[in-house]
Amino acid sequence: SLLVTSGPPDSSLQVWQVSAEDSDVIKAVSAIPAANSTGQPWAKIATMSGRAPWVLHGSNLNSIRITEVESRKNVYTGASTNNEELSAVAFLDSNSFLLCCAQGQLCLADVRQPRLPLEASSIPSAPSGGCWAMGVQHSPPGSASTPQPIAQLSSEGHLILRDVRKTSEALAWVRCRVPSAPSSTTEFLCISWAPALENCLGVSGFDGTVHVYQQRQSWGSSGREAEPIFVHKGHVFGAGGDPALVTIHTWHPQKPRALLSAAGDGSLQVWDWVESCG
């Protein structure tokens, strides 16, 4: 199987071959260059499995590409003169994808219309200021008509839920419980939907913890503070000095309450959770 990563020194991608189960060798096999990659931030990436696996990648709105992983054939090149920095990219299905700019604007695009300019739409209902991350809840197989909720998270702790069919309106708006002195960096903000649990979200990137929230009818759109139903502090307790910043987390695709998280000190933890009582 193949693994795709992005990283230094520019916004190009690396493709790795993962060995069979009886070996722990991961070997670099190729690289996917990016247009005007020199001096650009690391590319944001999303993959889609199909007859030929694709990777959606880019660091700015005007550098978006879709590349076939195995052949490195270019499938799609975005048409845009806007160099707005991206914070997240996601496939919605085999024909469409969604981009989130660092300032919170969203851009919905169709792979079948490469000449249509990519335009980032401002979000009038979003609080101004801060940087924004995005997570998309993918519909289960066989339910293509199910609306796909979008979750946006700001560096100030605002969490907004939207319908992909009408991103200008907020379905819910709350404020996450963030530390009084959060990390000075915003590049590791992460929000993700649980694939096997209803209305559950993971939030990280503010400190050494991962918070689990469950969307409730009482959330509304007033920006009130939401209570997490679980807080993972494994990276805090494992730190010898200052707690390491959680840089990423992801949900297990089949085990509903299992997550994996990594931190800046190189720690990698697999854990599950139960809802707090009281």
UniProtKB/TrEMBL annotation:
<dbReference type="GO" id="GO:0005829">
    <property type="term" value="C:cytosol"/>
</dbReference>
<dbReference type="GO" id="GO:0031122">
    <property type="term" value="P:cytoplasmic microtubule organization"/>
</dbReference>
<dbReference type="InterPro" id="IPR001680">
    <property type="entry name" value="WD40_rpt"/>
</dbReference>
<dbReference type="InterPro" id="IPR015943">
    <property type="entry name" value="WD40/YVTN_repeat-like_dom_sf"/>
</dbReference>
<dbReference type="InterPro" id="IPR036322">
    <property type="entry name" value="WD40_repeat_dom_sf"/>
</dbReference>
<protein>
    <submittedName>
        <fullName>WD repeat-containing protein 73</fullName>
    </submittedName>
</protein>
<dbReference type="InterPro" id="IPR042795">
    <property type="entry name" value="Wdr73"/>
</dbReference>
<dbReference type="GO" id="GO:0000922">
    <property type="term" value="C:spindle pole"/>
</dbReference>
